[in-house]
Design brief:
15 strands, Rossmann fold, three-stranded parallel beta sheet, 2 domains, alpha/beta
Length: 420
């Protein structure tokens, strides 16, 4: 019996053929597959920059692993259905730096690669933008969300919605949780500034008070920033209506939490976070147990872009990932899965290896596709247009610590629900 993925893709191709929008490439390819003449299998190479080293490697390794799993699945599907194409990942370490991402993408471009799917956070994506645009390299990021990169008619597409949405969700989450005053510490980069800008606007509109603290990323120590944050909380009142919002990467946040847990003011109020802290690097064994205890104490609660209804494909992906790697995917694995399927289908349907052809087909498919992460409908900038958010909280379990889903934001109705 065909798998759910096979049925979905076959139905998609039939729907496209009926719609009259398949060009000569896929028509000739499908014709070839039903003949008895042996055909040469055409290989397409997809570039993948990912942070395999450096302090953000836990994110990049998950993207790489999800990518390898997905390419194996795609190649099996193509082979089983007699479609004479296959795919290969060319992986480059982006080293958790902007410079590393630029070097990785330039290396891929130098090899003639015209299609990239990568773990590229917003600072890295901003760093490579001029190169991929000028070389017409179709690029899909599975992790960037900065509103500053929502630019129409370029070669950058993003699997996640921009933080103009997440900032709004965070504002409503904190406000509806009973907090009217917030001290915000955030990365002074396109990602952190973007989330803060939209959070600040929405929270202020609701009637709240915000005190901001922008910090320089990738510092060895954040003692002075934590001290300033504590002072800001005291200035706000440090009462039951005051909370902290942190917009950081996990390796920076661990340093801050290590200091904050020793501060009576900061350890006595609630903390909230954006999606960047929902990942394996924030909990033991990657972080010290005392940090995890602090997160439980302050009830660290955050947002994460994910469908509120777990799709059959999401269940299938999670199962395959756990079976293959012995761990649950935590961050960007499912986004990588959907991005690679869309890119592979775009390449197979166009039968051309150039950025413009793939971009045009990708836009068409994404607006009809429902993947592991839900509908992938795009806005005019090539970013996800509709996005649900899960609401998570760090909790202690029998086996250690984990992220518990406690609610959600419906992107269609713009309504927040906290489960009983």
């Amino acid at each position: 019996m065909p798998s759910p993925k096979t049925l979905i893709v076959v139905a998609l191709i039939i729907g496209l053929i009926i719609g009259g929008i398949i060009g000569y490439g896929i028509s000739s390819m499908l014709t070839t597959t039903v003949t008895t003449v042996p055909v040469t299998v055409k290989e397409y190479v997809i570039g993948m920059p990912a942070d395999l080293t450096g302090e953000g490697a836990d994110y990049g390794i998950e993207v790489r692993d999800a990518g390898l799993l997905t390419i194996d699945e795609i190649n099996k599907f193509m082979s089983d259905n007699g479609i004479p194409v296959k795919f290969r990942l060319e992986i480059e370490d982006s080293k958790t730096t902007v410079e590393g991402a630029v070097a990785a993408v330039q290396s891929l471009g130098g090899k003639g690669i015209k299609v990239i799917v990568g773990h590229l956070w917003s600072g890295q994506l901003n760093g490579i933008k001029s190169y991929v645009d000028s070389h017409k390299i179709f690029t899909v990021s599975v992790s960037s969300t900065s509103p500053a990169l929502s630019i129409p008619n370029d070669y950058i597409f993003r699997m996640q919605a921009p933080d103009s949405i997440q900032g709004k969700v965070l504002a409503h989450l904190i406000w509806e949780s009973g907090y009217k005053k917030v001290a915000v510490i955030y990365r002074n980069d396109p990602y952190g500034s973007g989330v803060f800008e939209y959070f600040n606007g929405e929270f202020s509109k609701l009637g709240g008070t915000v005190k901001p603290l922008a910090y320089t990323p990738d510092q060895p120590d954040y003692s002075s920033e934590v001290l300033r944050l504590s002072t800001m909380v005291k200035e706000l009142g440090a009462d039951k209506e005051t909370a902290v919002l942190i917009i950081a990467f996990n390796y920076e946040a661990i340093k801050m939490f290590g200091k904050a847990r020793l501060d009576p003011t900061l350890s006595g109020i609630a903390w909230f976070s954006s999606e960047s802290l929902k990942g394996p690097g924030i909990l033991p064994p990657a972080s010290p147990p005392e940090v995890a205890e602090f997160l439980v104490k302050v009830k660290l609660t955050g947002t994460y872009p994910a469908s509120l209804t777990e799709t059959a494909l999401m269940k299938e992906f999670n199962m395959k990932f756990k079976n293959k790697y012995g761990r649950e995917p935590k961050a960007y694995g499912a986004y990588t899965y959907d991005a690679l399927w869309l890119v592979a289908l775009s390449l197979a349907l166009t039968n051309k290896y150039d950025g413009d052809s793939v971009r045009n087909m990708y836009m068409l498919l994404a607006n009809r596709y429902v993947g592991a992460t839900g509908p992938t409908t795009l806005d005019k900038s090539g970013d996800r247009a509709l996005q649900d958010y899960q609401i998570w909280q760090v909790v202690k379990t029998d086996g250690g610590y984990d992220f518990k889903i406690i609610g959600g934001w419906d992107g269609t109705t713009n309504k927040l629900t906290i489960y009983g």
